[in-house]
Amino acid sequence: MKLFLALLAIVACVSADDWTPKTADEIKTIRAACLEEVPLTEEQMNHMKSFDFPNEEAVRKYLMCTSVKMDIFCTHQGWHPDRIAKQFKMDMEESDVKKLADDCVAKYPKADKENDVHVYEVHKCLMDSEVGQKVKTYIKKRQEQLSKQA
Question: Which interval of the chain is the signal sequence (predicted)?
Fold first, then answer.
């Protein structure tokens, strides 16, 4: 039975042909679901709103949850740099984003680390890169727009 479940998980990770980037609403839903699965403290949430991701177990597990639910990370196969590139290309060339993702994955290999530690390291690397800066700018602009509408 365990072997069957493992094979099923691998097949789910591999069937990438129909993967599409998540919309802002889908990401919002994913984040909410992950907050239910991995509750964070108000302090942790405030740090993350400022793009400061503390290296704490709950934050790492939350990042892993969102990465898995977005289908950009698979617990059996690891990262999908091609999907990261499609999801977060912003105004960059997809190939440039894929290279940044590949570089971060190579810089922080899985080795014997727990998945959440590996996800955290690669996430931090990506957020420190050009693509991370573009994501931060996009999120800040979106937050400003939403606050103007309120």
Answer: 1-16
- Report the SS3 class of residue 61: helix
What per-residue string of b and e applies to 16-30 under the rule 16 or more CB within 10 Å gives b? Answer: eeeeebbeeeeeeeb
Q: Is residue 46 part of a domain?
A: yes
H or E stretch at 73: strand 73-74
pTM, rounded to two decimals: 0.84
pLDDT digits (tens, 9 = 90+) for 11-36: 445 444 589 999 999 999 999 999 99
Integer angstrom CA distances of residue 6 from 2, 3, 121: 6, 5, 25
Please tell me the total count of domains within the chain: 1
Assess if residue 10 is contained within a domain.
no
Identify whether 7 is part of a domain. no
User: Which 8-state DSSP code applies to residue 48?
Assistant: H
